[in-house]
Amino acid sequence: METPVFEEIEPASDCDCAGCRHWRRVLPHAPAGRALAHPAAYRTLVAATAAASATAVSVLGAGAAAALPAAAHAVHRPGVPAGDEPGTPQGPRAPLHGPVGRPAAPPAGAELAGVTRTEIIERARSWVAAKVPYSTTAYWSDGYRQDCSGFVSMAWKLPANEWTGSLGTVADRITKEELRPGDILLFHNASDPQAGSHVVIFGGWTDGTRTAYTAYEQTPPHTRERDTPYAYWSDSAQYLPYRYQGVAAAGAAGPASHGVAGYPGRGMFRPGADNPYVTRLGGQLVRKGFGTYYTRGPGPRWGEADRRGVQAFQRAQGWRGGAADGHPGPETWRRLFS
Predict the structure, then answer these.
(1) Which residues contact 164 (CB under 8 A, 6 or more apart)?
(2) Phi then psi dihedrals of residue 205, to 5 deg
(3) What separation in angstroms does the CA of 52 have from each of 7, 11, 44, 70?
(4) Which element (helix H / strand E) includes 52?
(5) How far apart are CA 283 and CA 290, in angstroms?
(6) pTM (global) more than 0.90
(7) What is the pLDDT of residues 10-61, one digit of tens each?
(8) What is the DSSP secondary structure assignment for residue 222, as one 8-state letter?
(9) Which of 105, 201, 196 lies closest to 152 in space, CA to CA?
(10) E strand or H helix at 45
């Protein structure tokens, strides 16, 4: 008969029941990143052990040669996905977790923190260097959940742990041509978020063909950096590029849209848009020599004359295809107003 192997299970750090409070006082603290179990796990383990022991005594006493029942699986450790789990399951939207595992909610009315592209990549590489184990339930020492969306939340310095279904609320859709280090490629499977949903951080193109890029991602068994075919190894057509709304230009004092000062976002230049940014854009097109499509002075309502003027400016930059569609992205805005 094999000697039973016991696994130490610690009390849950975020549970306030009397049992957990007692065991937290008498047991040592868990290392960073390790999820803790509820004392009910002890009762389950003890009951299973007692049942196995009783069975063993009964079998031996009867002199039977039947084998002992198989031991129950140990409690699954965070960071080591079970064999039947999908490749990149994820946790829900959640607050950051403090040093002892207690949720640390962002202050009321918290704004998005400004972060530069350099900071985003440096923060991503810090998890790569630490080989942070993948987990949908554990939180690293910085308070962020150890799954793909928690990783992006960390790199973007978000005030909470987002998930693939909410990252789009703090980011704007961009085109492949606009991708820059620190942006993300996001696949959210709305019909079944646990099946395939994933997100990676874009680290830059590996060559001039723009068919592969450096990806930073949180995936089993731990954080990694690797060359990845665009847009991803599987479900490639489902991955869409996004840019964090709080990304700031290097050296900027605060957040700027897409890292370009003054750029208001694509929503200001959609059909039917009517705002001062359209007037400002049109005036700059005229000053730059691309106002020939206006039959009268530029106004606040977005129209075909605006689009054709922007397109002419984009083509003058040597851009073609989707990069010269007549809709001003952050790089078009930067060059137009530089």
Answers:
(1) 90, 148, 149, 186, 187, 188, 193, 197, 198, 199
(2) -70, 145
(3) 16, 24, 12, 9
(4) helix 40-62
(5) 10
(6) no
(7) 444 445 555 555 555 544 444 444 444 444 444 444 344 444 444 443 433 4
(8) B
(9) 201
(10) helix 40-62
